[in-house]
Design goal:
The chain is mostly beta strands. The protein contains one helix and 20 strands.
């Protein structure tokens, strides 16, 4: 694939990952196995309070075609077929859920050194059509994300974003929720050697005049162990420690506490992912 500004979903992604990725208050366990023919199977179970959820994922790669299957506890089968490089920079994705007959969707992505485009259309009589595009380069990117419902003739989504990326700094400005929400985010890489970074995200909702501020940091204790912490203006503080006890196998323990109601019990989440 050509290097360039990426897709619209890549705007502010690294900052979102710093502030939100791997934090959880549930208990999750997954184990992956890979057969001789390359078929990877991953059963997983998640405990959310008193609710127990489970699913089985299977992935098979054959040259440029990747097939993903996911069967959940409600017997819904989600299928995703990805075809890479039908033409230079082009990726095609077909997805559908059985038995939902209206879930089918075809998505085409195109990557260029100065642009990234993604367009999708539902496989229904009156489908939902989505278009997102980004222009720029590895330093600056400007993009938009639009969805149109042909059954109602209305735009269900229109967003816009701008990002600046440097070796040690990333700054982004995004208008979401039909331009009702403005989010400004910032990430600074303090030390690439220890993966130390700090980040912040400020969101303002125009309709309610509400502001939300989240700040966070991460640091690698060693090549196998990392720490993360964050806090928001509502007083919710979270922290996690993640250890790779073998390549690709991770154990993550995270906790959350309401600093404005310290008498309440802290929430603790554990995730164990075992991979060959």
């Amino acid at each position: 694939m050509a290097t360039g500004p990426g897709l619209y979903s890549d705007i502010a992604k690294k900052t979102r990952d710093l502030l939100y990725r791997d934090y959880q208050t549930d208990h999750k366990f997954s184990v992956s196995t890979v057969a001789a023919n390359g078929l990877a199977i991953t059963p997983s179970a998640t405990k959310k309070g008193e609710l127990l959820l489970g699913d089985v994922n299977a992935q098979w790669k054959n040259n440029s075609v990747t097939t993903d299957l996911k069967l959940d506890i409600k017997s819904n089968l989600c299928t995703t077929i990805t075809i890479d490089e039908l033409a230079p920079g082009l990726k095609t994705i077909l997805s559908f859920v059985v038995p939902d007959q209206k879930s089918g969707k075809v998505e085409v992505q195109y990557f260029h050194e100065n642009a990234g485009i993604s367009t999708s259309i539902g496989l229904a009589a009156k489908p939902l059509v989505n278009f997102s595009g980004v222009v720029g380069n590895n330093i600056v990117a400007l993009g938009t994300d639009i969805s149109f419902d042909t059954s109602t003739g209305n735009f269900t989504k229109y967003n816009a974003g701008l990002s600046f990326s440097f070796a040690d700094l990333i700054a982004s400005f995004v208008l979401n929720d039909k331009f009702d929400t403005l989010t400004a985010s910032y990430m600074h890489i303090v030390s690439p050697l220890t993966k130390t970074a700090v980040g912040a995200e400020l969101t303002h909702r125009f309709s309610s005049n509400e502001n939300t501020l989240t700040i966070g940091t991460q640091h690698a204790l060693d090549p196998l162990t990392s720490l993360k912490a964050r806090v928001n203006n509502s007083g919710i503080a979270s922290a996690l420690i993640q250890h790779a006890w073998r390549p690709k196998s991770l154990v993550t323990i995270s906790g959350e506490v309401d600093t404005k109601a310290i008498e309440k019990s802290a929430k603790v989440g554990i995730a164990v992912a075992l991979k060959p």
